[in-house]
Amino acid sequence: YIADAWNHRIVKWKLNSNQGQIIAGGNGYGNQNNQLSSPMNIIFDKQNNSFIIADWGNRRVIRYFDQNQTNPQILISNISCEGLTIDRDGFIYVSDSKNNEVRRWKQGDTKGELVAGGNGQGNHLNQLNKPANIFIDEDYSLYISDYNNHRVMKWGKYAKEGTIVAGGNGEGDSLKQLSPPEGVVVDHLGHIYVADRENNRVMRWCEGDEEGEILVGGNGQGNQSNQVNWPTGLSFDNEENLYVVDWENRRIQKYEKI
């Protein structure tokens, strides 16, 4: 499932297909039931057999139960939503880049529970500065791309502050730095993968390490097979193949298990 932001739609691509299928939006920019406005993220909720969309331009998180886009459910309103993730219990986590926080939501919530940030904009360990993509692991630890702080933060369940697990050494292109982080995922070994957007690379960090390693790109901005151009999103499949949203190249690249 792909959030095709500037076409205001969600596209589903089956394995080995040469074209996708529009499953949400695709009816121009707008806020009607069959419209989206610059969707930034999508997750699939297996428990409810539905997909949930960060409808960024409309400042809402919306749920569709089918591909006919009938009777969509607005889960959250008035939120600068970019990152979405869901835990094994079906709780939804949403990053709010304006309020510099991440909240956890369950069905019927009107406010959500604060789980990270919420202490104003800043770079202290209890603060965030434009949180972007997020990831939740099996232990309910939350990983946050802290965009303007050029770092990835890990917040344990019930934690009052986070720990820096990638970057955090200012903006730059050394192996200790990010510029800035966007997509973030964690594998079953606890390795942290970060889309380092303006450095045109994907990095892997082990928690506690001072430096990361370059896995994808790092060969300058371009469209060759060893290059990416503003990578923004990351995802694993069941075989731990890595998918990279190669934003400026208008493509998604697949890398076999690394």
Structure description:
By secondary structure, the protein is mainly beta. It has a domain at 2-181: Neuraminidase (6 Propeller). The chain contains no helices and 22 strands. The protein has strands at residues 2-4, 9-12, 21-25, 39-45, 50-55, 60-64, 73-77, 81-86, 92-96, 101-105, 113-117, 131-136, 142-146, 151-155, 163-167, 181-186, 192-196, 201-205, 213-217, 231-236, 242-246, 251-255. The strands form 6 sheets. A 4-stranded antiparallel beta sheet has the order 4-5-6-7, with no helix packed on it. A 4-stranded antiparallel beta sheet has the order 8-9-10-11, with no helix packed on it. A hairpin with a 7-residue loop joins β14 (151-155) and β15. The chain is globular and about 50 Å long.
In a nutshell, what does this entry contain?
With 258 residues, the protein is mainly beta. It has a domain at 2-181: Neuraminidase. The chain is built from no helices and 22 strands.
Characteristic terms for this protein:
4-stranded antiparallel sheet, 22 strands, 258 residues
* Helix/sheet category: mainly beta
Poorly predicted parts = none
Task: Assign the CATH topology of the domain at 2-181.
Answer: Neuraminidase
Characterize the largest beta sheet: strand count, sense, and whether it forms a barrel: 4 strands, antiparallel
Overall outline: globular
The portion of residues forming beta strands comes to: 35-45%
The separation of the N and C termini measures 22 Å
Question: How are helices and strands ordered from N to C?
Answer: EEEEEEEEEEEEEEEEEEEEEE
The second-level CATH architecture of the domain at 2-181 is: 6 Propeller
How are the strands of the biggest sheet laid out side by side?
4-5-6-7
